[in-house]
Write a structure and sequence with these properties.
4 copies of one chain form a homotetramer. Chain A is of the alpha+beta class. Chain A is 23% helix and 38% strand. The longest helix of chain A is centred in the C-terminal third of the chain and has 18 residues, at 196-213. The interface between B and C is large, with 81 and 81 residues.
Amino acid sequence: MAVILGDNRYGKAEIRVVRVARDGEDHVLTDLNVSVSLAGDLAGTHLTGDNAAVLPTDTQKNTVFAFAKEQLGSGQPIETFAACLAKHFVDSQPTIHCARVSIVEYAWQRLGPHSFARTTNETRTVSAVYGPDQSDGTSAWIVSGLADLVLLNSADSEFHGYLKDGYTTLPETTDRILATAVEARWRYMSPSSRDWNTTFDRARAALVTAFVRTYSYSLQQTLYAMGQHALDVCPEIAEIRLAMPNKHHFAVDLAPFGLTNDNEVFVAADRPYGLIEGTVLRDDAPEPGLAWW
Amino acid sequence: MAVILGDNRYGKAEIRVVRVARDGEDHVLTDLNVSVSLAGDLAGTHLTGDNAAVLPTDTQKNTVFAFAKEQLGSGQPIETFAACLAKHFVDSQPTIHCARVSIVEYAWQRLGPHSFARTTNETRTVSAVYGPDQSDGTSAWIVSGLADLVLLNSADSEFHGYLKDGYTTLPETTDRILATAVEARWRYMSPSSRDWNTTFDRARAALVTAFVRTYSYSLQQTLYAMGQHALDVCPEIAEIRLAMPNKHHFAVDLAPFGLTNDNEVFVAADRPYGLIEGTVLRDDAPEPGLAWW
Amino acid sequence: MAVILGDNRYGKAEIRVVRVARDGEDHVLTDLNVSVSLAGDLAGTHLTGDNAAVLPTDTQKNTVFAFAKEQLGSGQPIETFAACLAKHFVDSQPTIHCARVSIVEYAWQRLGPHSFARTTNETRTVSAVYGPDQSDGTSAWIVSGLADLVLLNSADSEFHGYLKDGYTTLPETTDRILATAVEARWRYMSPSSRDWNTTFDRARAALVTAFVRTYSYSLQQTLYAMGQHALDVCPEIAEIRLAMPNKHHFAVDLAPFGLTNDNEVFVAADRPYGLIEGTVLRDDAPEPGLAWW
Amino acid sequence: MAVILGDNRYGKAEIRVVRVARDGEDHVLTDLNVSVSLAGDLAGTHLTGDNAAVLPTDTQKNTVFAFAKEQLGSGQPIETFAACLAKHFVDSQPTIHCARVSIVEYAWQRLGPHSFARTTNETRTVSAVYGPDQSDGTSAWIVSGLADLVLLNSADSEFHGYLKDGYTTLPETTDRILATAVEARWRYMSPSSRDWNTTFDRARAALVTAFVRTYSYSLQQTLYAMGQHALDVCPEIAEIRLAMPNKHHFAVDLAPFGLTNDNEVFVAADRPYGLIEGTVLRDDAPEPGLAWW
């Protein structure tokens, strides 16, 4: 019996880079939170502190800033920026075999030629992985997504017909508030490049539309309808993973005060909350490889 | 020498009430975080635990829910809801002499007749105080405001000509990013009721416009211009208080990588940050009374 | 009628400075979050952007680091460090008339000669103000304190005998959990220097002791007992201000599952929460001056 | 081509249960944050909103409270409570095939027979999975751990000999602060029950001891030493996974102020930060099965 080193990775997390493109009359603002994670020949640094194979996380940070200068022009999607960075780390360092670059993009609304307001907490996300060739010849993967898309339906949501046991007290309902904060991540049918912004806009719109249109009997049903609709309108998407908390809104009992409450007054609860996670995919989706690494 | 009880107050904080108005075809959603604070004949509970003068914070919470049912119709501004609650606590309980009701309102964007997205972190705020008559006969005060209005100018901001001492290393600059998260609170020339929503929209627009239009030599100058413009377009506002962090964006030195950086690549810093606080008011503003209680 | 500049101040917030004293065999670690706020002849920067009277917040930050080198030896209390910094800004800059230096100190437990664990979220705080002479000749004020001291009594807490109105549903109880996170700030009978660490230790111990020993009929009663005991054991303290949320723990109704619950199973609620704020002081306490500025 | 449902699970997250054991003279306090996640025959609810196979998350919450009454006696480790809950959901519901119960335990220090202080942010964690039999006959897995163990060495840390490329500016150092917040999770050689508290205490002590004792040439080396030492002193542990941010402390350049800085004054940085993740395991560790589900 011996103790050995297992899976490991390291990198620089949460590099807050802001890029201003000043080419035209209007400035273009790109506001990112970039995280890098690398794996490779890293036994030395773990076992003896020999760092000969280690690209410092400080260098990773510098690389992100330098690439932001050269690769983040106006309207450049985060997918190509992340992929380019991931490939750089593996291609330039023989000791690094796999790299993941994750980006969270903050949205700003234009107020003027060089004035902006940050008007939403919703973010666009990407995770680009570049690594050893898989059996199908693939060595690069892109997972696009969004987070903190907060949605609420104040009608068309029921919940009943569920299992009851000795611990069940929840009354069945044919009218409740359904509210959630969507986290979505999707991978693609092929690794080839594409118009990432158009796919993002279409996928996001599909998620929102399905949330609004679905008459819901469970948050799972809404989640599946959202994923299915995204796949329907985006043939380039192979698989979508959704995580959706059930942000409970409980109708307040106003009877003690001589008042009715026909689903008009709710308390928004913090904890606990339901958490629904599900995957919707095509039956001919390619192998994920290292997409979710 | 004796130990005595000084100023004190108590209440229920962060009551998360959501009101759905279902009168018309379209649901109207009002999403609030309400905090109550009361003062009065409270020596008993402090000194001996005699609670005869104490209206429980649980009752305060119930009152907020009950009033939400009856007072929060479609488009009702938070100013009148807060004022009505504050007055209730004082008028209904002889032991309570002063009440403050503070509300943070979360904004939702309509997606359909009963579907909504929460598309901003910016909030609208109010603090309504109802208390003992002041010498001018006033017994009710309203302070309206907003918070987390995040703004950024990527040009038209300089900073130079400041004091230098032995601890100064900051280089003067004629081109920097100016970014902030505005917190604004304003009180009124008279206690009379008004179209609160219109004032809010005008004041907010004035703050944003002045931020965008001001060629800035200091964040203080921008702050004053914002407050001044709000007073210019809203004669009903007597005084506005602004707190604006200077959210630093530092240009990254790319020279070591053979790259120039003409204010194109910045690192968004977390801490420390500048914090600028200032008041802009009319020289004939009435006494504040308990407005800021 | 004219628009004018009212109260204003500015500074650098949340300077995260860590000082390692390496004089002896054991390193001594001091971990601080320092915030500076200055006021003075600042009309120019507000009205025209003339910064001739402005000491940049970047310089304030540098000053904190430089003073940390020279003034933060082993075991130096934050009171003297804050006071020394506040005095420096006013004394060295004719345009600065008043300075507040607030410090939050994070505690570390020694694990070895140069090894430490951060074993509590509780912090020690200070706010030192240096400003224009008051009528009593005072120009320096110290407010010491602590924050996030989380305490819980699982017995000896009752709540009954309170006001009931049409919105009251809370049942009276003779046995409940009483839990809070204490924020305390105290000022002194005289501005003279003293053994700040000893006062802090005594005051903190008094607060904890009174919380543990008080058979409570209301959180207000507990708050007052804590403040009173701090003043009893610390004659140098003139006034103490306490803010104590009532962190509600509600007994869960287990009857539907055929179980009793004799105050054994509770749900810890997030929001809303009670918030109790109170002041305990000596009847011969000196005027506060700018202590709470 | 068809769109299909992939992996999915659902549950109730962050159930904040506090258990007071009142058997003896001294109350014993157990403060938990429990999250449940279930998988099984859930196609119906996703595809058609048929909830016949769904045990509501509200019922899961009730179950946690009821089990807290009966299973959480004095000193009961969270491992057995989590395992018992996970088994219950699968055994009692034919439609549920796999359950994970994750618990975060908050520590309280005794101040008196029924008085407590929460004196650390560090938490103890467990994830218990109960599911379909694996090929080796195992159907239950326990992963124990801890989080937010914040440690700092102010000496005995170097970093040099690393890769340099065109983006490297970091100077090599033979003296730096090494600080981190340890998250550790470990699984066991066998599924049998054991004295969980003793293992926890031993593993935690080993992690701390190795952090203190290791003369470090990289955070990876420290991480590996910590994992190795935990496995050395706990033969029952098969594998340990560690995630350790490198909480950077940068020495401040005081030369502009005529001062030296021999690693005495540091700025504690927020973002970005290094993130080191690694696994240390025995070469004869059993298959993990669903331990990390």
